[in-house]
Amino acid sequence: MTTRTSQAALSKLDVRDLRALIREGAYDRHTAGLAKGKLQCNLAILPERYADDFIRFCALNPKPCPIVAIGRPGDPMLGTLGEDIDIRTDVPRYRLFREGRLEAEVTDITDHWQDDFVTVALGCSFTFENALMAQGIAVKHIERDQTVPMYLSNIKLAEAGPFSGEMVVTMRPIPADRVDDAYAISGKYPQAHGAPISRGDPAAIGIADLSKPDWGEPVEVADGEVPVYWACGVTPQNVLMKAKIPFCITHAPGHMLVADIAEDAEIGVFKTQHLS
Which of 41, 75, 123, 232 is a plausible cystine mate for 168, CB 3.0–4.6 Å? Predict the structure, then answer.
């Protein structure tokens, strides 16, 4: 059963205590604003025969898909991201996809794990949100205990093997006089999508209605605020669905793996655990 502990209390938990709650099934909600200072990760878990093409896809599209760790085939542990991280249990909520269709959302994938699975961990925009707040830029969805709004854009991505599609973006309303600051602050975190990809008119990137996100919850853009859009780690989920591979697993949008390493750690694919 999900814990009823307040978000304020949860935000004070040590990262390992937070992951322990998640592993026990006591917390299955979004991770925005939790374990401040720690890297948060999107996930794609897929059979080994598709992994090389998917990793190449991510390398060709680093804004939405910044790789921070790659697991060994069949190994659910991600030691490069922290001590005793078990990818089967340490994410609040997962999504199971078969042939491109969402089959279920679950809180534990132990019974679904395969010996040929490869885990690819990707940076998350929740990482730079802490930096925005530290510099006095409010992040509305965190203040309201909501999941960030996410939208499928019309921005085409580079293709690799069966993987292709359009970029998913997140939106955060930013005070007009702080937009340049938001660009500068988030630009320091290339492992977490870096600087925004657009601002202003949503139609310019193919979004019809900001009040109707494809994932997450809507956040109002008030007078004096500008909608600012960042590349989003839900992009691979959309791409995996389009590829219609037999079976794969992702995190549920907004429900991230929280790592032990610092959110500003200098990391990259060549410093991670590799396929062997």
Answer: 232
Q: Which CA distances in Å does 193 have to 99, 210, 228, 262, 267?
A: 28, 21, 13, 16, 13
CATH 3.40.1640.10 residue window(s) in the chain? 7-125+245-271
Express each pLDDT in 219-254 by its tens digit.
Answer: 999 999 999 999 998 899 889 999 999 999 999 988
One-character DSSP codes across 175-223: EGGGHHHHHHHHTT-GGGT-S-SEES-GGGGT-S-TTS-SBS------T
Residues of the chain with CATH 3.30.2040.10: 128-231
Query: Under CATH, what is the fold of the domain 128-231?
Result: PSTPO5379-like fold (3.30.2040)
Whole-model pTM? 0.86
Q: CA distances (Å), 264 to each of 44, 122, 152, in order?
A: 22, 14, 27
CATH code at 7-125+245-271: 3.40.1640.10
DSSP 142-157: HHTT-PPPEEEEEEE-
